[in-house]
Specification:
two-stranded antiparallel ribbon; single chain; globular; 75 residues; 2 strands; mainly alpha
Length: 75
C-alpha cells in the first residue's frame, strides 16, 4: 500500500510577521489564512508555535529552522 503524504508549505519569516500583526488585530484564523493565501497552515502554525506568551514570529521562525535541520539529519 502506498501512503500518500500531505504536501505542506512552509511559511516565510515575512508571513509569520503578517500572521502576528493580523492576530493582534483580532482577525480569526480563517481570515488570516485568506489574507495571506494559506489555508490549513495557519492552524498548524498557531498550534506548534503559540506558548504562554502568545504567538511570537521570531521564536516560530527559529523553531522552524531547527525542525528543518533535524529533519534533514534524519534522512
Amino acid at each position: 500500500m502506498i501512503e500518500l503524504m500531505k504536501e505542506y508549505k512552509q511559511l516565510s519569516e515575512l508571513q509569520k510577521y503578517q500572521i502576528d500583526a493580523l492576530n493582534k488585530a483580532d482577525k480569526n484564523q480563517k481570515e488570516i489564512a485568506m489574507m495571506i493565501s494559506v489555508v490549513s497552515t495557519i492552524s498548524r502554525e498557531f498550534k506548534r508555535n503559540t506558548g504562554q506568551r502568545g504567538y511570537r514570529p521570531i521564536a516560530s521562525h527559529l523553531k522552524a529552522l531547527e525542525r528543518r535541520k533535524t529533519a534533514a539529519a534524519e534522512t
